[in-house]
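User: These chains co-purify. Model them together.
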Amino acid sequence: MVHVEIKAEELFSIGPLIVTNSMVGAVLASVVLLLIARWFTRRSGIVPSRGQSAIELPIEFLAGVVRGTGGKRWRQFAPLILGIFLFVLTANWLSLLPGVGTIGFAEEVEGKQIIVPFVRAGAADLNFTLGLALISFVTFIAFGLRANGVRGYLKELLIAEPAYMTPLLTPIHLISELSRVISLSMRLFGNVFAGEVLLATMLALTTATVFILPLAFVIPGVFIGLELLFGLVQALVFALLTMTYITLAIAEHREHESADDHSGEAPETGTAPAHGAA
Amino acid sequence: MDLHQLAAGLAMGLGGIGPGIGLGIGFSKAMEAIGRNPEASGTIFVPYILGLALTEAIGIYALVVSLIILFAS
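Assistant: Joint model of the two components:
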């Protein structure tokens, strides 16, 4: 009924570098972002035009969130969070354009005629999401190292609070750090890939009955609207989780040196008593 | 019709129970909190979205597993 390929298909190769159709999607997303950025930084004014406000709206919203929850050093990682958000959002929404995933080479595999599309959603390939998750992983470890120092960080990671619990808690700590990468990448990949399969399935189901009920013109449209929402939410979730991990890595440090000034740190007050009790 | 399809259906169906209950609890608590204190809806939003994402991840794992069973084995 529906042909589904979990791996991104190979289009051509430049020497040892294999170019897949998901890579084309991801590069397209970044090109679109760069063009928008160039266009709007050239002609931006103090009084924003309508298009400029539309571009500034998500940036202002997310920068507000990062400023509200990111603590004192929010300026250092706000560009990364914004970049991840805009990149994932653009990649997700580009994949809903007509032609993406439908126009491509015709190929014959195992006696069946299939289409190898030229462009596929960037995040519908685990390599894309795993790459982003690794960027996030390296960043929050680097922030933790810089805030705590190498010794402080290793102590935080390897030695539990009552020392006799160390052999039990240290593996759990290590696994939970690593599982962040897996859950970040799997969540984005699973959502986007399932969205593609969902759209293809809905289209196939409704076109099969199009002569009885003309639902094929309505139902896939509803699901495309749903996918617009999911693309936004997943981009937001990826960016916000990265921000949370970075904030946690920095906040562990502030715990023991600033026990006296609880005044200006509204997001910290919730976690401080819990740490004290543990 | 072979056992792969049954396995994929079971993986997704059983794997959807837990996240479904969890998402329902989280959503109802968030709505309750907003109902009690409507001004706090801005502060509730971000932790709420994060909680939903973490809960939903379990369902996504089931989905990925069942897709792998269906298409990659």
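Chain A touches chain B at residues 4-6, 65, 68-69, 183, 186-187, 189-191, 193-194, 197, 233, 236-237, 240-241, 244 (CB under 8 Å).
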